[in-house]
Design a protein that fits this description.
The structure is a single chain. Helix content is 21%, strand content 35%. It is an alpha+beta fold. The protein has two domains: 180 residues, no CATH class; 149 residues, no CATH class. The protein has a nine-stranded antiparallel beta sheet. The protein has a six-stranded antiparallel beta sheet with strand order 13-12-11-17-18-19. Strands 10-15 form a two-stranded antiparallel sheet. Helix 1 packs parallel to helix 3. The longest helix has 23 residues. The radius of gyration is 26 Å and the shape is elongated.
Length: 338
């Protein structure tokens, strides 16, 4: 998304919530303040187009997303692309925060409304910093406890770290509950009924090849006499590339495929071939995903996968990674009555 489109969508979002915010903010408060009804961070709206770096600190750990060209990435994840939706929601949330009344500026009292710095895993607060490309800070705030007595929009206790003053504001700041939520974690999605063949090979486990018979039923190549398919485990093999989401990701620089490791390959009914190859990173096994199109219908999908697959390696959930290690013994059992 280009910067102009990002700003336009942000302004629409802020305008949509603005009416509800002002209606509540204009109500008389028991404690008046000359800034009541003002935006806490007006520069976020006026300079939204300039925002190029967002830092979110939660339980002592900071996640960073940064603008790169027309998109956004996570630098600590090797520059992996991030989704625009959580960025837009976060920036719009900060932009529309409207002052209701001042709260404490005494650091000894910050914890009462949960606006202390999130320095440890015991701190419930979250810190948000919005910066321009030249490092100008447009907002540096700590998001604390919610106050649901402030109408439909809700209220939030926040602290402006530039002044160290905490405030009760109208509005909420939507934050991902973990760093991976910034990213689209799905790297492949091949439903089981689209898989024409799956081959698991390499390592010290015999090769497992599963194909489709003419009637569409799964077949295990070379299945030993006196054995039959274990349907549940065979289905796991055929579904290996279905909704394949990573648990973590990093840049592939300096990492190479382990030639002695076990790999997985799926060929689809419409000409897409995906290969999952092991990469050693110290004691951990990560995975590289490669795609080939054997038919024009699959070329766009292969190109999309390779655009990322060549630059990144992935840590897969255990329930996916374990399937790569399956051999004929794991998907067959003694035939009943044998």
């Amino acid at each position: 998304m280009n910067p102009t489109a990002f700003l336009a969508l942000l302004l629409v979002t802020v305008a949509a919530v603005g009416g509800a915010v002002w209606t509540t903010a204009e109500r008389p408060r028991a404690v008046a303040d000359e800034r009541a009804g003002e935006r806490l961070f007006p520069a976020v709206t006026s300079r939204a187009n300039d925002i190029a770096r967002i830092e979110v600190t939660d339980k002592g750990t900071t996640a960073v997303v940064a603008r790169e060209g027309d998109g956004w990435t996570m630098p600590e994840k090797g520059g992996y692309p991030v989704r625009i939706e959580p960025i837009r929601e976060l920036v719009a949330g900060v932009a529309q925060l409207t002052i209701l009344e001042p709260m404490t500026a005494d650091p000894e009292r910050f914890a009462r409304i949960e606006v202390q710095d999130p320095a440890t895993d015991r701190d419930p607060s979250k810190r948000v910093v919005l910066k321009t490309r030249d490092g100008t800070v447009l907002a540096d705030l700590v998001v604390g406890r919610s106050n649901w007595q402030m109408g439909a929009m809700g209220g939030t206790y926040v602290r402006d770290r530039a002044t160290n003053r905490s405030w009760l504001v109208q509005g909420r700041v939507t934050l991902p509950f973990e760093a991976n939520i910034w990213m689209d974690r799905q790297i492949a999605d091949v439903p089981a009924d689209r898989a024409a063949a799956v081959v698991l090979s390499g390592g010290d486990v015999p090769t497992l090849t599963m194909t489709r018979a003419a009637d569409g039923k799964a077949v295990i190549a070379g299945m030993a006499e006196g054995r039959e398919m274990k349907t549940a485990d065979a289905d796991r093999v055929l579904s290996l590339f279905t909704a394949m989401n990573f648990d973590d990701v990093k840049g592939a620089q300096g990492l190479s495929v382990d030639p002695a490791g076990r790999s997985a390959e799926v060929t689809t009914t419409d000409g897409l071939v995906l290969r999952l190859k092991p990469v050693r990173d110290g004691e951990a096994t990560l995975w590289r995903l490669e795609a080939t199109a054997t038919a024009d219908a699959a070329k766009a999908e292969a190109d999309r996968i390779n655009a990322l697959g060549g630059r990144f390696v992935y840590r897969l959930p255990i329930f996916k990674a374990d399937v790569v290690g399956f051999g004929p013994e794991q998907v067959t059992q003694p035939a009943r009555g044998s």
